[in-house]
Structures are given as structure tokens and as C-alpha cells.
Amino acid sequence: MRYRDLTGKELIDAYKGERLGVLGNTDLDINPQTGRINSIVIQDFSMLGLKKGDTNARINWKDIEVIGEDMIIVKPDHT
Asked: How far apart, in whole angstroms, are the C-alpha atoms of residue 74 and residue 51?
């Protein structure tokens, strides 16, 4: 799967049932040795697209449960 196939999909937390963001408005943490994605970093943006602050959320790639046609369902490890 290519990044462009993932862009625009909504990230949904399966435990809380809430929208985390849209892939494409995020950053990817990539392992430079393997080229694999370690995690998705979600920045905290306002409605106008301006960055609110230095806060962000990180979703580990291993926590992705399903990649669907319109959304990505994640089950973050809360332990």
C-alpha cells in the first residue's frame, strides 16, 4: 500500500469512538534503516488550519486494527 492510498482517511479510536484526525494532516515516524512506519503523529490544529500548540498524539503502527476504504480504525495500547 502506498502513502497516497492512505491520504484522506479518517483515523478513528475504536475504544473511545472518536475521530483522531485525517491522515494527510499528520506526520509519519519512519525507521530509516527498514523504511517501515513506526507511528503516525497527529498535530493539534485549529479549525482554520493553524497550529494550536506543541501538543500532539502518537499512534503506533502496530495499533492499527483495520484500514478501510474511508477510515482507519486504531486500538491504541492504553496500558
From this structure: 24
pLDDT in tens, the chain (79 residues): 777 888 889 989 999 999 888 887 788 899 999 999 999 888 765 444 445 555 577 889 999 999 999 999 999 876 5
The residues spanned by each domain of the chain are 3-45+54-74
Regarding the domain delimited by 3-45+54-74, which CATH topology (the fold level of the hierarchy) does it fall under? SH3 type barrels. (2.30.30)
53: Cα within 13 Å, side-chain hemisphere: 3
* CA nearest neighbour of 74 among 1, 6, 4, 2: 6
